[in-house]
Specification:
Layout (H helix, E strand, L loop, with lengths): L2 H24 L7 H15 L4 H19 L3 H6 L1 H6 L1 H25 L4 H7 L6 H11 L3 H25 L5 H23 L1 H29 L1
């Protein structure tokens, strides 16, 4: 694919994201999140002009590469709030561990209740982990990576939409509790939503997201082995 065509797809993605952000900024409804609207705009564009996903993905490669240095930006708030993180380290670790275990346990139990296949259960179990780690866990346990990625995205969207509502409904006031809830349940999307609430919430969510990935590597095979 030539460079001009690749750059045009990058430009398409950026324009779609800007449009979706403006819509979300004016009508702040969770269902209008850029994570939903931006892909819809791109899907409609590709369908109308009969462009294959493979062609579009060739340009998306550049955006994927740009994510790598962007992740480093998470290190700054971690350093900025290092004293608070040290002070509440045990609380954060314990809550994320319990939250991860409960989420994995419930997902496997529900899979058994609805009599879904063994392979499907293995694909669903790591649904709260960020996509790359979740797919690795799924592959390790015998699940279907693509299906796992779908459940991760759905979980993240649900967490981003319902999380703030539940936080207000439950009268959760502390930044640490908000960050743990969104980071543990919503991976990267939940962490992004936490940063909208405040830098401390986002920092705690970042830690929760990383810990969820680590704990899930241990808990998913263990819980699957016990329940299936």
């Amino acid at each position: 694919m030539n460079t001009i065509l690749q750059l045009s797809f990058v430009l398409l993605t950026v324009i779609a994201y800007v449009i979706s952000k403006k819509i979300y900024g004016k009508i702040n409804w969770g269902i209008l999140s850029p994570l939903i609207i931006c892909p819809l705009i791109i899907i409609i564009f590709l369908s109308v002009f009969h462009i294959s996903y493979e062609q579009y993905a060739g340009g998306g490669y550049w955006l994927t590469k740009m994510l790598e240095p962007a992740v480093v930006a998470f290190a700054f708030p971690l350093y900025q709030y290092r004293k608070i993180l040290k002070e509440h380290a045990v609380l954060i670790i314990a809550n994320v561990f319990v939250g991860s275990a409960i989420s994995i346990f419930i997902s496997v139990i529900l899979s058994k209740c609805f009599h879904v296949s063994w392979k499907m259960s293995e694909s669903i179990a790591p649904h709260i982990v960020t996509t790359p780690i979740a797919m690795d866990i799924s592959s390790m346990t015998g699940g279907m990576e693509q299906l796992t990625a779908l459940f991760v995205i759905l979980t993240a969207l649900i967490a981003a939409i319902t999380g703030p509502v539940l936080i207000r409904f439950m009268h959760i006031k502390t930044s640490i509790a908000k960050g743990i809830a969104l980071g543990t349940s919503g991976n990267g999307t939940g962490t992004s939503k936490a940063f909208e609430m405040g830098p401390l919430e986002g920092t705690i969510a970042t830690i929760a997201m990383l810990l969820t990935g680590i704990f899930s590597l241990l808990l998913v095979p263990l819980i699957l082995g016990l329940l299936i």
